[in-house]
What we know:
Elements: E1 8-12, E2 16-19, E3 36-40, H1 58-65, H2 80-89, H3 93-96, H4 111-117, E4 123-126, E5 144-147, H5 171-181
Parallel strand pairs: 1-3, 4-5
Antiparallel strand pairs: 2-4
Amino acid sequence: MRNCLLIILVLGSMLCSPGCSKEADTRGQSAPSVFIIVLDAASAQYFGCYGDTHGTSPNIDRFAAESVLFENAYGQTPTTVTSTASLMTGVRATTHLMTDTTVLDPKFETMPQAFSRQGMTCYGVIGNPFAGAPATGLDRGYAEAVQVYALDSLKTKRRMEESSKFIVTLPEDIAGETYKLLPK
């Protein structure tokens, strides 16, 4: 079975990260490793790979130098749930009709479901309930998903987001959970 590492990081409003590995398929070719990094509430102007000269994003800049970098990508809407639903399904917000109080209609296939249908194994590390919590339906298709914003181990280490009452995750929280999921 082919595996894929799908990593969706939603930083800023903090984080969603999915994952997979690389094994030979039945034709002897390698399955792709797919990393999708989504930055919520972070403007491209603050990243070196998009021209910033302050050196604030060296890791992303190095990764971008070896990757496909989209220079004209735009969110479908200004809200996390709706925009993430469009990213994960490939359909416009006016089609999926997601809000922060709705659940994604099962008729819309998510990206991890599509990858899984192709024989890839997808993992998720979700740091923002608005970007992939089970309550939204945006977590469908992962073989395993960690809801970092709800981990008991972080409750005493991180502050609680006041308006929605979830744990604010940091990049190191996401990285740690991602490394735990990566195939050995």
